[in-house]
Amino acid sequence: MRCDDVAALVSAAFDHEIDSEVGDPTEIDASLAAMAAHLRSCDRCARFETELRLLRRVLRYEPTEMVPDLTDEILEQTTRRSPVDAPVRRRNAIRRSVRGWLVPAAAFVVAAIVGATATALIGPDGGAAYARDLPARVAADQHHVDRVRTRFEIRERGWHPSVKRRDYSGTLAYQAPERLVLELRDATEYPDQRWRPNDVDLIVDEEIAWTSARASCPLESQPACSPRRRTQQLIGREPFADDASAPLDVIVPARSFARAGPPRIVGTRRIAGRSALGVEVTAAQIEPLLDGYLAAGNFRAVHPTDRVELWLDRESSMPLSVAVFAAGSADRSRWATEQGYTDSDGLAIVEITTVEVDERPFEFSPPPPPVDASVRDAGFDRASIVPPARFPDAPRTTGIGADAVVARSATGDRLALHRTGTVMTDGGPTVVTTSFSDGRSWVKIRETAVWSGDRLFGDLGPVVRRRRLPSIGIVYIDERGTRLGIHGDGVDVEVSGSVSESELVGIVAQLGVRGEPVPEDWPEAGTAGIADARRASPSLLTVGSDSGFDRPAIRVVGTSVTLAYAGPGARGLLVTEVAGSVLGPPLDVDARSVELRDTVARFSPSIGTLEWVEEATVVALRSETLGLAELVTVADAMVQA
Amino acid sequence: MHEPDPAGLRRAIQGDDGEFTELVRAYQAPVWRFLRHLVSDAGLAEDLTQETFLRVYQRLSTYRFECRFTTWVFQIARNAAIDAGRSATRRRRLETTPLVPTPPSDPVQRAEIEAALASLSEPLRAAVTVVEVLGLRYREAAIVLDIPEGTVKSRVFSARRELARWYALDEEETDHDAL
Lengths: 641, 179
What we know:
The complex is a heterodimer.
Chain A: H1 3-14, H2 25-41, H3 43-61, H4 71-77, H5 128-141, E1 147-160, E2 163-175, E3 179-186, E4 200-205, E5 208-213, E6 230-235, H6 254-257, E7 264-271, E8 274-282, H7 287-294, E9 307-313, E10 319-325, H8 330-339, E11 348-358, E12 374-377, E13 380-382, E14 416-423, E15 431-438, E16 441-448, E17 464-469, E18 473-478, E19 483-487, E20 492-497, H9 501-508, E21 527-528, H10 530-536, E22 541-542, E23 553-557, E24 560-566, E25 572-579, E26 592-596, E27 599-604, E28 609-613, E29 617-622, H11 628-636, E30 639-640
Parallel strand pairs in A: 6-12
Antiparallel strand pairs in A: 1-2, 1-11, 2-3, 3-4, 4-5, 5-6, 7-8, 8-9, 9-10, 10-11, 13-14, 14-15, 15-16, 16-20, 17-18, 18-19, 19-20, 21-23, 22-30, 23-24, 24-25, 25-29, 26-27, 27-28, 28-29
Chain B: H1 6-13, H2 17-39, H3 42-59, H4 69-83, H5 107-119, H6 122-133, H7 138-145, H8 149-167
Helix pairs in contact in B: 1-2, 2-3, 2-4, 2-6, 3-4, 4-7, 5-8, 6-7, 6-8, 7-8
């Protein structure tokens, strides 16, 4: 392709105007593929594309000069006068007060600020302060939502070569803390009747949850592989269950912003009549949010490094718009090829847009499941009364009950007692479950006096942190800081929730349970602190504190140290350091060398691992949610502990 | 760009001044930004913004939902600018060395890009302003500018090439597309 032809195609593709052209989709795909290939080899055209992005950023998103507030003058000429032709009074004749000036505005509509509305605006610093506060703001806003209904639309591109684009309309009804109905209806015009609509129903109503959708299946097997919808129903669902969980991040994306650093602000606009703030994140970070819409049903996949523009309601932090754009890395292209996708760099592959928000009171009335639903009983039996001492023979009193435990949010609001009861499963221990909630936020306490497992009670994962706290003893914490485990004398307790780690620790402190070290043969016995890790590996490297990851959970086995770092959403990183002077044989035929830290490392894309030798230590970084560029950035910034 | 709530818009059409006030508050800023880029004069953009909404107020009863409301408003704004006699023929080039691309918050770079935008011919500047600044689709931009959709596409591309040339490290002559 000639450079002029490529530049014209880049310009149209940048505006997402390629798929609106009349033409053979196969020819369009071929042109886009040729364009992408040309961009990889032509610096001039690649620079043109970069310059387009800069232009977009400067002209559309960045704060500009002061935008005058002409509302009063306009209304003076129109509604406050008789509706006759009247000349516009020129500006020199009009006295404006300083109050009438808007602060620098992004390109999209600025929220109405005239009057008493206390909406914060992006200031002259381009939103840096707002960005710093956003994660805390999102965490706080989960306490403030009670109920909401929305209508939204989804556009999906690249799901199948024969179906370029699919369109859905949807409704969402939510009543705090865990009653939710999400219904998607497929409005796509398919090539023929073999293709079945991808309708999805997702209902969570406390003890009951069900989904009705077509199963996802490999692209090459479509459309024959999903002929009918299947309905799966869960009864006896315990509060805030991990399986059949309510996708609460579609209401307030608390998980997607927990432990998050300041995101990049892309601008402000109005969506569905609400003032929205746009931020740029990755698909991995908002995986809990995307899964809420796309986990059930026969949808395409997105890559963890795909770029996302997420627009949040500025008053409630509710996601109003999500746009996922195909990232442009070589590994992403390789993944797309393996999946059968032909995404061009920057293609909007998923767009979720709210069209209406209704916060008026409504009666939550979920539809009943189809009669042919397959039913599974999770064994939760709800109790209306929680006795203060549930295990009278135990050498301690738990005292877990509505009055004994005061769960408070970071703002001091009390979390109300939600559902309590017991879970009894075949062959499993009796587990008493107590839950609290405030809006969309929640805390759950699970306890059992008959734990006989060979690992810590609760689903904390293989690598945990250990803290010794006054009056509590030993507490084990998962790598995300969302679950705490206590191994006590005659009782094992798990505390989890959507609130911060420090708030969960505060709740643990009220339980009256003394945490002890786990037995030596439990995997959590290898949990170590940084000092232990340094003794095992004297040249221990750690990820920098400004890398976007929280402090790690550490496990030491002999001279092998494992550090598990968790970021927001699904972002995570595993670092292993073992004494050695050579790398093991490559496990990936596509492994390639990468220069970093004054040495040559090996990157194995199929297992997402970057490894090298430094000071007689084999260091490996492994992640399913970070691309090579980010791994190299993290590796270059590692420092000796 | 966000459309107004249809029910509120209908009430405004029927004479509800409160609803019209909400329309003004919602759209006067992007209309000003559009006109600001179009006429390259902040003061004139203010006058034209007022003129635009006066015309919107006077003609609101004629809006038939045949196109998006925002498209209709920007069409009125564009015509107001044309009526004010601001068809651009001026063209000036700064006597400065092209800058190396720097992070987007650089005010010098922003000033360069704004100056480059002002130096475009009026047809190119209008097209790229509507698409790049306002984010309208080509189809909607064609309605606002009263030109074919294909012309929108070619003018946006030509404008971008011109703008990119301002801060490219190497300059070379290329043929302009026919306007």
